[in-house]
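2024-03-11 09:14:02 DEBUG pipeline.ingest accepted 1 chain
2024-03-11 09:14:02 DEBUG pipeline.ingest length=412
2024-03-11 09:14:03 DEBUG pipeline.predict start
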Amino acid sequence: MCAHGNAGALARDAGVKSQCMAVYLDNNATTPVLPEVLAAMQPYFSDEFGNASSIHRRGQKTRAAIEKAREQVAKLLGAAPQEIVFTSGGTEGDNHALFGLLGTSIQPGDHVITSAIEHHAVLNSAERLRDLGYQVTFVPVDSRCLVSPDEVRRALRPNTRLISIMAANNETGVLQPISEIGRIAAEADIYFHTDAVQAAGKIPLNVAELGCDLLTVSGHKMHAPQGVGALYVRKGTPISPLLFGGRHERGRRAGTENVASIVALGKAAELAQAWLEARGAEQMSGLRDRLEREILGGIEAATVNGAGAPRAPNTANISFDGIEGEALVIALDLKGVAVSSGAACSSGAIEPSHVLTAMGLPPARARSSLRFSLGKQTAAHDIDAALSLLPETVARLRSLSPAWSRHGELVR
């Protein structure tokens, strides 16, 4: 973690981390494994250890468990089980979606469209495609973090072969108009991929309604363990494997399956489906909205980034003018509240979030942003605890900040 600005002084004042509470509001980074998910995967660490490629009884029991998980994930996405490929997570899924089409239907010189706010698993893959001789367009977003379908349409070229636009932004939670973009792709006969890592399990998803050919999910964003995910590949979509070896996953991903984690992903998908049907998302968005409302009402010069756009029910990205977000993350952590910053540490310096700057935020405001992301375990008392600490903590940091005047106005 970077020490920046007045965070070091604040840590010295605190001495040691407070033991008074433990509030976790960083679920877009990773989620805790739910007890039901842990219980489902535990037998595959002990008694049910067979290799799913073996034809004996023990192997076939694990094969059956994998296929059940495939059905559970497929149901969450409105897909057919044979269209689900298990992966190691979102990064592999995004890479497989983009690079898997190489050598099949996309050739150097062809054109790819993505957005300026994608996760780096897509952004860096797109940059690599450009290095390899592909043409890449990064469409912009508006001040609400929304990709315009019209911008995507305007970016089309005769040689466009792939569009990749995320379903929900990982920093702001803003939901992109995927169905509209899917229709544009279908009309132009272009392959369409969406990174749904931050959407799966939080909002209803149906691949037919979205019109996507490829869709990525990650287990650890939906209360399964880290290190497992899935890639939806529409039937008939040509895709090459990234890994070569055995004929696992119908020849689309070589390697002995991670049975315990795949079972866990299936169980997490089943629980997510039930949670959505029980209107859990509405309850979660109620907690998120109260958090935002009370922050805006109790702390001056605070702004919700992405306000006015449709958002995933669990995500709030808020700027606190006059302070560094990284310092606020550290200060809250010392008091037992885990959140994340809208800025990333790199080589000892804080760079503004590429998402927030793409929305038009000045660098200072982008660096002052925090992401609060709720999970299925988040309760009202967690929101109460965070709200009880934020005003005083923000005021303390502003009193130490040269950017904040005695009148509480950001020095321009």
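2024-03-11 09:14:41 DEBUG pipeline.report Residues 5 and 327 are 7 Å apart (CA to CA).
2024-03-11 09:14:41 DEBUG pipeline.predict end
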